[in-house]
Amino acid sequence: MSAADLLTSFYISMKKISALLLLVLAFFPSASYAQISISSTTGNVYDIPGSVEDQASGSMMGSFQLTARWLDGQSRVMSYGLLGGSTWGFTSDRLSLTIDGSSDTFSSYWSGSNSIAGLYQLEFDAKNTNVLFDRTFYYNFAEGTPGSNLGWDGDIACDGLLYLLCELGTSVVYTDAARIAPNEPVGDLYRKMTMTFSGTGIARGVDGDIIRFDTDITMATVPEPSTYLLMSAGLAGLGIVARRRRGKI
Questions:
Q1: Which residue, of 45, 67, 215, 246, is most buried by count of CB atoms within 10 Å of its CB?
Q2: Where are the beta strands (DSSP E) in the chain?
Q3: How far apart are the C-alpha atoms of 172 and 155, rounded to whole Å?
Q4: 153-211 tens-digit pLDDT
């Protein structure tokens, strides 16, 4: 076999190996979702005030709550807020869960530091805030609630071949659907999300990316200019009536 033939054979082999690697990389992220149990229930239905904005960053979210639970029976309730600098998130004596204020929740993992072994559940509750948990249909790219584009189901941080082992048995449950009244809930936006980890939970000393979940936010409706004119006319009319009443006294 000539040198040219050897070079051609090597080139073809490398292309086959590259294609195989791409196939493996494409397969395992999909496999990870197969290992996580994702479900949702309507529960209590919440009306969305105003419109929906799907590009939510860490600094745009209101003070929603996190309840963290450990296998030793302990739990901590934390409220979301600014922790310092550009860091936002939740913190307690056992757990911190943070995200950068400029990070889009669609593509960014939350960084966590867990000081006690056996963290098995994270329950996020966003009722009475501007936060919506968006599980828009990832696989079939179906249309969601108006204003909410593609979302991302709750996920945990694993890489490469660890997908199948790391996420096996983890469940994510969405409850309390949100809607733009008078329409019924589409099934992509929720006010509550619970992540339950399998086995012995998240170990002590974990420090780094832990979870990812997509959020949207509600935006207050801005009145049209004509609405402001009507309001001004109404207030002016009330003022005239009040002055006339005072003049008759």
A1: 215
A2: 37-40, 46-47, 51-53, 65-70, 75-79, 81-84, 87-91, 95-100, 110-114, 119-125, 131-134, 155-156, 171-179, 189-196, 207-212, 215-219
A3: 8
A4: 898 876 544 444 566 678 999 999 999 989 999 999 999 999 998 877 777 767 778 89
197 CB-near residues (< 8 Å, 6+ apart): 119, 120, 121, 156, 169, 170
In a domain, 114, yes or no: yes
Number of independent structural domains in the chain: 1
User: What range does the domain containing 77 cover?
Assistant: 36-219
Other C-beta atoms closer than 10 Å to the C-beta of 89 total 21
Beta bridge partners of 135: none
> Tokens 């019924």 correspond to what residue?
184
